[in-house]
Amino acid sequence: MDIAKVMQKIGQQARLAARDLAVAPAQAKSAALNHAADTVWARRADILAANAKDMDFGAEKGLSPAMMDRLMLNEDRIQGMVDGLRAVAAQKDPIGEVTESWTQPTGLHIQRVRTPIGVIGVIYESRPNVTADAGALCLKSGNSVILRGGSESFHSSTAIHACLTEGLRSQGLPEAAIQLVPTRDRAAVSAMLQAVDHIDVIIPRGGKGLVGLVQKEARVPVFAHLEGICHVYVDGDADLEKARRVLLNAKTRRTGICGSAETLLVDKAFYDQHGDVLVRDLLEAGVEVRGDETVTKTDGTIAAKADDFGHEFLDMIIAAKIVDGVDDAIAHIRQFGSNHTDAILTENDAVADKFFHQLDSAILMRNASTQFADGGEFGMGAEIGIATGKLHARGPVGAVQLTSFKYLVTGDGTVRS
Predict the structure, then answer these.
(1) Concatenated DSSP letters for 399-410?
(2) What pLDDT is recorded for position 208?
(3) Cβ contacts of residue 87 below 8 Å, gap of 6+?
(4) Which of 178, 225, 231, 329 could form a disulfide with 388 if both were Cys (CB 3.0 to 4.6 A apart)?
């Protein structure tokens, strides 16, 4: 396969498809997504068979348990994909929405209107459901998309992509609106990163290695987060039972996702009152706790190394530290965080307000698990990723975040003096 020629053709087709999608009726896009959802469910046995091949490949490749969990599909996860497709289909179409409108003293009437970005490139690892999420969100927002899934999810992504194509075909929409790169060759990634004539923005979804590579080599603009170093701070005024419940969920529900808690910060006042109950809860749940000198007084913990704080484990491991109040917690998060998601557990409104106002993470939570850092949980139906930059998209990237805008200006023979 001549990768350069293949990627050039894919890019050209995507650009042409984007022109058609920009003016496609909202009803057609929604109907295509609903048809794709029906097809995914009807073909679930084929998708699971394809995923079994990928799981074998991942095992041979030596993927970690967390990465294998990301890769694995079952009927419940396929149902989740179906629900996500339907949820995106049911959303209000963002294209053409007037976000602002005003009239100038000159008589000019000005509207700011949502438009598609154009062509989106999505490069992702392991999670085959990203194929459905990214395809759905790009279609809903009037963008064509080029999907490059990870080598380990090749068969699953191919089977899911075929269902999306069926949806497009059912409504007479261009099949090139959602394209999947048909090779595991990494040269395709390099070609996408350089494709300034064909791709308007790249969205990487994966680990630090992938995202760092994309940010380093891309000539195309990038929406990205480098790491999900999520903190849970347990304040002195936290409710004990809420704290126990939320912390365990934040760490253990799914360790391989970017919203999994990686660092526990406990206020000294809470520790003095309740002791090591949170640490013991984690240990009993099978979590390896790497702590400071106070935390390691608990049997079963191990001493944290210097680089454990600020590390994305994506595993049943957490770094833990005792801090002196919210100011100390904020200082720690500023030093070691990644501006992804950080949570405070407290019943004190003033302390919560300080945490919210003095930290600049894309998502800040109070008395809720960091595992809610997800576009579906935010009511977006799905997401392509969590953007931690400050330009254009930030936080969960859903359909609305995949739009740009233009100004429509109307006069009545108006001239400038």
Answers:
(1) TGGGEEEEEEEE
(2) 77
(3) 376, 381, 382
(4) 225
- Cβ contacts of 190 within 8 Å, gap of 6 or more: 217
pLDDT in tens, 16-63: 999 999 999 999 999 999 999 999 999 999 999 999 999 999 999 999
Provide the CA 96 distance to its chain's centre, in angstroms. Answer: 25
How many angstroms separate the CA atoms of 292 and 240, rounded? 21
Check: CB of residue 204 under 8 Å from CB of residue 72.
no
What is the full DSSP assignment across 282-348? HHHTTPEEEE-TTGGGSTT-EEPPGGGTT----SSEEEEEEESHHHHHHHHHHHH--SSEEEEE-S-
Decide: 396 and 386 in contact? Cβ < 8 Å. Answer: yes
CA 284, distance to chain mean position in Å, is: 30
Two tokens, residue 214:
């994309």
Query: Which residue(s) pair with 99 in the sheet?
Result: none
Q: Residue 414, Cβ neighbours under 10 Å: how many?
A: 12
Average pLDDT over residues 393-407: 90
Q: How many residues does the chain have?
A: 417
Domains of the chain by range and CATH?
A: 3-223+397-410 (3.40.605.10), 230-372 (3.40.309.10)
Per-residue pLDDT at 284: 98
Position 196 scores a pLDDT of 95
> Are the C-beta atoms of 33 and 86 separated by less than 8 Å?
yes
Q: Which two tokens stand for residue 156?
A: 């699953």
- pLDDT tens-digit series, residues 184-232: 999 999 999 999 999 999 999 877 788 888 989 999 999 877 689 999 9
Q: Is there a contact between 239 and 152 (Cβ–Cβ < 8 Å)?
A: no
Sign of the torsion angle spanned by Cα atoms 26, 31, 36, 38: positive
Distance, in Å, from the CA atom of 217 to the CA atom of 189, rounded to the nearest integer, reads: 10
Specify which residues 232 forms β-bridges with: 264, 343
Q: What is the pTM of this model?
A: 0.82
